[in-house]
Amino acid sequence: MNNYQIIGNLTAAPKEYAAKDGTVCAKFSVAVNGYGGKTDYVNVTAWGKLGENCLKYLDKGKKVFVSGTASCHAWQNQRGEIIGNIEINAGLIEFLTKSSLEEDSDEEPKPRAKKTVAKEPKGSRYQPSDDEDLPF
């Protein structure tokens, strides 16, 4: 299964491209905090209406959730080094930063639908206990 999910901030405003058939495409990069303080940069491509919405509402620094299929690209630079990157072809993008319209509005925010989250049965995960319970 090739499905990747990331949360991060845009490094720049999305750029607009168009396919030969006229379909709109938005491309942008997302900075994702990795392990040990390392930042990964992931390229994202959004097509059609999703791409149009990205161009309309996203800008540098906005936080997004992206889900989609990934592909890896590698090439050799002028110094002979192999360079690679990951690109996600977005199927879903959620805008996590409020838009300026929402921030300026005097209205109460509209309640979101509650998401149902399945709970795991007790004891299915390791749960730390007192040091006295440890066998060593």
What's a concise summary of this model?
It is built from two helices and six strands; from the N terminus they run E-E-E-E-H-E-E-H. The protein has helices at residues 48-57, 100-104; strands at 4-10, 15-18, 24-33, 39-47, 63-76, 82-95.
Topology (elements, then pairings):
Layout: E1 4-10, E2 15-18, E3 24-33, E4 39-47, H1 48-57, E5 63-76, E6 82-95, H2 100-104
Description:
- It contains two helices and six strands.
- With 136 residues, the chain is mainly beta.
- It has a five-stranded mixed barrel with strand order 1-3-4-6-5.
- A hairpin with a 5-residue loop joins strand 3 and strand 4.
- The two termini are 41 Å apart.
- 13% of the residues are buried.
- Residues 109-129 have low confidence and may be disordered.
Lateral strand order in the biggest sheet:
1-3-4-6-5
User: What series of H and E elements makes up the topology?
Assistant: EEEEHEEH
State the low-pLDDT regions, or none: 109-129
Number of helices: 2
Which class best fits the helix and strand makeup? Answer: mainly beta
Question: What is the CA–CA distance across the termini?
Answer: 41 Å
Mean pLDDT across residues: 81
Q: Quick one: how many beta strands? A: 6
Characterize the biggest β-sheet. 5 strands, mixed, barrel
Radius of gyration: 20 Å
Proportion of residues in β-strands? 35-45%
**Helix share of residues?**
10-25%
Gross morphology: globular
